[in-house]
UniProtKB/TrEMBL annotation:
<keyword id="KW-0663">Pyridoxal phosphate</keyword>
<feature type="binding site">
    <location>
        <position position="387"/>
    </location>
    <ligand>
        <name>pyridoxal 5'-phosphate</name>
    </ligand>
</feature>
<dbReference type="InterPro" id="IPR002986">
    <property type="entry name" value="DAP_deCOOHase_LysA"/>
</dbReference>
<dbReference type="InterPro" id="IPR000183">
    <property type="entry name" value="Orn/DAP/Arg_de-COase"/>
</dbReference>
<dbReference type="InterPro" id="IPR022644">
    <property type="entry name" value="De-COase2_N"/>
</dbReference>
<keyword id="KW-0456">Lyase</keyword>
<dbReference type="InterPro" id="IPR029066">
    <property type="entry name" value="PLP-binding_barrel"/>
</dbReference>
<protein>
    <recommendedName>
        <fullName>Diaminopimelate decarboxylase</fullName>
        <ecNumber>4.1.1.20</ecNumber>
    </recommendedName>
</protein>
<dbReference type="InterPro" id="IPR009006">
    <property type="entry name" value="Ala_racemase/Decarboxylase_C"/>
</dbReference>
<comment type="subunit">
    <text>Homodimer.</text>
</comment>
<dbReference type="Pfam" id="PF02784">
    <property type="entry name" value="Orn_Arg_deC_N"/>
</dbReference>
<comment type="pathway">
    <text>Amino-acid biosynthesis; L-lysine biosynthesis via DAP pathway; L-lysine from DL-2,6-diaminopimelate: step 1/1.</text>
</comment>
<feature type="domain" description="Orn/DAP/Arg decarboxylase 2 C-terminal">
    <location>
        <begin position="31"/>
        <end position="385"/>
    </location>
</feature>
<dbReference type="Pfam" id="PF00278">
    <property type="entry name" value="Orn_DAP_Arg_deC"/>
</dbReference>
<dbReference type="GO" id="GO:0008836">
    <property type="term" value="F:diaminopimelate decarboxylase activity"/>
</dbReference>
<feature type="binding site">
    <location>
        <position position="359"/>
    </location>
    <ligand>
        <name>substrate</name>
    </ligand>
</feature>
<feature type="binding site">
    <location>
        <position position="245"/>
    </location>
    <ligand>
        <name>pyridoxal 5'-phosphate</name>
    </ligand>
</feature>
Length: 435
């Protein structure tokens, strides 16, 4: 996976540093990112679009992994940034991310969030619903500002992925439905708002997707709407935003498309469908999250206790779990792992990796062949770069791990480990309880 590999001593090495060294230096559990791979993934998107000759913007979906250092890296690679909350927006602003390259998403942005985003002049609002359209126009008018908006539509396609992460089907909390006429109504309304400039439609059909059929169908439907807008308003909307969703390989069961292939298929379909309707090619915006960060991340854990149930199973417990990786419990997600300091030993014991949270569902991996382990060994779980740190939590009041970027044989902290002090930082004991 990525640039993590087995070196000549049978040790896992990431970005030129042995995992065992990283664990020693920064402690475990530890999120380790291969910085070069993060950059390579950004560049793969840019390069693929450049090949197509079309106008484009690649906007990294920061929900997958949002820290100030990541915002910096994304800025350096020339991508935009998609945020879905005041917290992600604040992170970007603190990192000095250019506000005009920020896109603001979300199905229930608060008045404070909208107001702040207008004040700092973010690039584009992705408007989700009629209420937001009204509030945004009102606040923009009050502030005498104008802003670019895209309308998020639900195109009515089902992407074949876990039901919790499909978003394009009609019965969804997100966006204006295409089927019911809500999209047309929203477009008419948006075009009447003096302070909003409608630049196009946005869709996001799901995540961890392995095929382009869903995109193809959605693009056909979107192109129909663009044609209709031209007919009725004499206006060609300049941008189409196709969202994110490209899947990655967590285990050998996954068969993802290459970034180049994914992008070239989308640009081909856009060209076909738009020219078939006598429309100019729009600028294409994409919002990849997982496919930029997932493979670049590895989580290191220290192996602790073991429980053997003869003839049934061996549980091997590590010093993290659903507090740093919610995905197995939430989506039955599967992972591959290795013992970083024993990669060249025979993998002749089948074990199940348990977390340390007080919950039976806190299992990271079921039945995986590993070398014989001892307490203190370092377990490395691969492809943990997307939706791990960002979904980490303090269940059982477990402190969240540190995050390290590794490059050219050097690891640097980008998020320090939480301390016991951090755990009680927001707690107060009211006087009434002190008596
Ligand atoms: N754009 C929008 C509007 C989105 O809602 C998302 C993800 C993305 C872009 C980025 O999608 P990606 O390229 O990462 O697939 N927590 C789940 C994934 C939730 C995805 C939410 N939306 C997981 O761990 O699998």
């Amino acid at each position: 996976h990525g640039t993590s590999k087995r070196n000549e001593h049978g040790q896992l090495s990431i970005g030129g540093v042995e995992a065992v060294e990283l664990a020693k230096q920064f402690g475990t559990p530890l999120y380790v990112y291969d910085e070069q791979l993060l950059r390579d993934n950004c560049r793969a998107y840019i390069h693929a679009f450049q090949q197509s000759g079309m106008k484009f913007q690649v906007t990294y979906a920061s929900k997958a992994f949002c820290t100030m250092a990541m915002c910096k890296l994304v800025e350096q690679e020339g991508l935009g940034l998609d945020v879905v909350s005041g917290g992600e927006l604040h992170t970007a602003v603190q990192a000095g991310f250019p506000v005009e390259r920020i896109h603001f998403h979300g199905n229930n942005k608060s008045l404070e969030e909208i107001s702040y985003a207008l004040d700092i002049g973010i690039g584009t609002f992705i408007v989700d619903n009629f209420y937001e359209l009204q509030v945004l126009e009102h606040l923009a008018a009050e502030k005498e500002k104008s802003c670019h908006v895209m309308l998020r539509i639900t195109p009515g396609v089902e992407a074949h992925t876990h039901e919790y992460i499909t978003t394009g089907q009609e019965d969804s909390k997100f966006g204006f439905d295409l089927g019911s006429g809500a999209v047309r109504k929203a477009i008419d309304l948006a075009l009447k708002k003096d302070h909003l400039q409608l630049i196009g439609l946005h869709m996001h059909i799901g995540s961890q997707i392995f095929e382009t059929t869903g995109f193809q169908i959605a693009i056909e439907r979107v192109a129909d709407v663009y044609r209709e807008v031209l007919n009725t308003h004499n206006l060609e909307l300049p941008v189409v935003n196709l969202g994110g969703g490209l899947g990655i390989r967590y285990t050998s069961e996954d068969t993802p498309l290459k970034i180049e292939h994914f992008v070239s298929t989308l640009t081909d379909v856009i060209q076909q469908e738009f020219s078939a309707r006598n429309l100019h090619y729009p600028e294409i915006w994409l919002e990849p999250g997982r496919s930029i960060v997932a493979t670049a991340g590895t989580t290191l854990y220290t192996v602790g206790s073991r429980k053997e149930i003869p003839g049934v199973r061996t549980y091997l417990a590590v010093d993290g779990g659903m507090s740093d990786n919610l995905r197995p419990a939430l989506y039955q997600a599967k992972y591959e792992a290795t013992i970083a300091n024993r990669m060249n030993q025979p993998h002749d014991e089948v074990v199940s990796i348990a977390g340390k949270c007080c919950e039976s569902g806190d299992m990271l991996i079921w039945d995986i062949p590993l070398p014989k382990t001892e307490p203190g060994d370092i377990l490395a779980v691969s492809c943990t770069g997307a939706y791990h740190y960002s979904m980490a939590n303090n269940y059982n009041r477990i402190a969240r791990p540190a995050v390290v970027f590794v490059k050219d044989g050097r690891g640097e902290i980008v998020v320090r480990r939480e301390s016991a002090e951090d755990i009680v930082r927001c707690d107060r004991i009211p006087d009434s309880l002190r008596a």
